[in-house]
# Entry
Amino acid sequence: MTEPYVKEDIQNGISTIEFFHPAHNSLPGDLLAKLAATIKGAGENDEVMVIVLKSGGDRTFCAGASFKELININDADSGRVFFSGFANVINAMRKCPKFIIGRIQGKTVGGGVGVASATDYCMATKYASIKLSELNVGIGPFVVGPAVERKLGLSGMSQIAIDANSFYDAAWARQKGLFAQVYDSTEELDEAVAAFAGQLCGYNPEAMKEMKKVFWKGTEDWDELLAERAAISGRLVLSEFTKETLKRFK
# Structure
């Protein structure tokens, strides 16, 4: 696999939405826009009972935002638009009336942790360590922070946000509430995800829709909140500190 994609496959009431990018499943703006639109479409499709969100390949789940796009930001408005990509995906997941199961097969970084946190039920392998690396480049996990805090609590989120150079293993993420289950292999994970998604398809869709509203209560301001956070990141990415740091990474 070399070409980036977002694709959807619907079978027996289960919409499997898969994204892929050859750079460790990082997500540039066009893929983020397509991912948000695909999630929205699945939520509106009466044939779909439940959604499984996954990435291609068998290693990294998501390396976060596209580094190539990040280093090319030269003004605050472009920065705001860039960071709004993950905000739009998280808000699409939040508003989707169907349960979204996250299938996390490997490491996830930055914005990828936000995507995993925005799923309604997240299942992973033991290789699915997580890291919020944004502070390393002088920004901060502002856009994904609310979603991560909602799952890990303020203490857990602040721990990995401040310790921006460390991966936290899947057992830690499960203990904190991000992962519901952790499996020894991708094969075991896929079997469990398929079985669980099939089980959910037997439930009352109206009941699941109402439950999702309850689970996400208190997030009604996230359209505005995440837009504000995207603007903060868009401004910080122009700082001298961040520009110099990005040059070293480049």
In short: The chain is about 50% helix and 15% strand.
